[in-house]
Specification:
phosphatase activity, about 20% strand, 3-stranded parallel β-sheet, metal-binding, metal ion binding, alpha/beta, 5 helices, elongated, magnesium, LHPP/HDHD2
């Protein structure tokens, strides 16, 4: 749902995090629109996210399902795309090599940042899972127990 935007005659499929809309009828409508030429746009392709009661499916599995079913590729506009991270630096006079991303998602946060030329610090909080460090190559610049530990490392070793 996009408040204030008419959705009665859609010309694109935009997938974000809207679990209440990931049901057969809505996914089939998206499928039909893509087959009819509508572009598939993903806010991001996270596999899962952390909720109060544990991990939950993110939009990634649904985007991937639509890609598979329609034989198309989604245009991803968020993490882990390089342009997303570089856009965060725009206007800061900070080069990617001078930036550090701290995140709990090895692939989308850390891997995406490192692909953009930044250092990535993985924290073992939030949606972190044991052995996440081995899921990307190159491995994270550093893995810390939590955000304060990561900040402490930056202050002591990178400034």
């Amino acid at each position: 749902n996009f408040p204030g935007i008419a959705t009665d005659d859609p010309n694109a499929v935009v997938v974000g995090l809207a679990p209440e809309h990931f049901h057969y009828e809505m996914m089939n409508k998206a499928f039909q629109l893509i087959l009819d030429g509508a572009p598939l746009i993903a806010i991001h392709k996270a596999r899962y996210f952390k909720k109060k009661d544990g991990l939950a499916l993110g939009p990634g599995p649904f985007v991937t399902g639509l890609e598979y079913a329609t034989d198309t590729k989604a245009m991803v506009v968020g993490k882990p795309e390089k342009t997303f991270f570089l856009e965060a630096l725009r206007g800061t006079d900070c080069a990617p090599e001078e930036a550090v991303m701290i995140g709990d998602d090895c692939r989308d946060d850390v891997g995406g940042a490192q692909n953009a030329g930044m250092r990535g610090i993985l924290v073992r909080t939030g949606k972190y899972r044991p052995a996440d460090e081995g899921k990307i190559n190159p491995a994270p610049y550093l893995t810390c127990e939590n955000f304060p530990e990561a900040v402490e490392h930056i202050l002591e070793h990178l400034l």
